[in-house]
């Protein structure tokens, strides 16, 4: 009879220790989780971004431009899709630039307006995710 009590006490103690350990691990994990700010880290941005190599094309008024981009997508699937659509990306960029005059590109906020226009047009062709942001990485107007 004494052995049964001892075994029961040991089982209860082991269960209590296990329960305390589990609760401690859960609390530590909850405390250490950083709040989701909604903004991706730079590593996440780079991981889901596609580089568009330098494109040289004529503008509407006969001047020409050399320009390159980094395009941030919403996911790895979107990145993979955008990489496959590289010819469409280049085509949209060239079409957009061919409609512009060099004076338009010299105006205040012209680069950000162009980036937003390209973002909208690219999202029009995307199926597996979306373009989050278009960054101009080089820009030479002649």
From TrEMBL:
Keyword field: Cell membrane, Cell projection, Chemotaxis, Cilium, Flagellar rotation, Flagellum, Membrane, Transmembrane, Transmembrane helix
- Write out the transmembrane intervals: 6-28
UniProt xrefs under Pfam families: FliL (PF03748)
Give the domain of life: Bacteria
Chief location of this protein within or outside the cell: membrane
Q: How does it sit in the membrane?
A: Single-pass membrane protein
Q: Where in the cell is it found?
A: Cell membrane
The record, for InterPro entries, names: FliL
Q: Which GO terms describe its biological process?
A: bacterial-type flagellum-dependent swarming motility; chemotaxis
- Name the family: Belongs to the FliL family.
- Cited function: Controls the rotational direction of flagella during chemotaxis.
Q: What is this protein called?
A: Flagellar protein FliL
């Amino acid at each position: 009879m004494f052995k049964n009590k001892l075994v029961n006490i040991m089982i209860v103690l082991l269960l209590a220790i296990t329960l305390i350990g589990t609760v401690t691990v859960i609390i530590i994990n909850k405390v250490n989780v950083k709040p989701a700010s909604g903004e991706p880290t730079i590593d996440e941005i780079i991981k889901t971004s596609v580089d568009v190599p330098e494109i040289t094309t004529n503008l509407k008024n006969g001047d020409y431009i050399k320009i390159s981009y980094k395009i941030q997508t919403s996911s790895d699937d979107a990145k993979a899709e955008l990489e496959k659509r590289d010819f469409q990306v280049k085509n949209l960029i060239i079409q957009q630039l061919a409609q512009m005059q060099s004076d338009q590109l010299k105006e205040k906020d012209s680069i950000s307006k162009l980036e937003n226009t390209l973002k909208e047009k690219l999202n029009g062709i995307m199926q597996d995710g979306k373009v989050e942001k278009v960054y101009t990485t080089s820009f030479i107007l002649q």
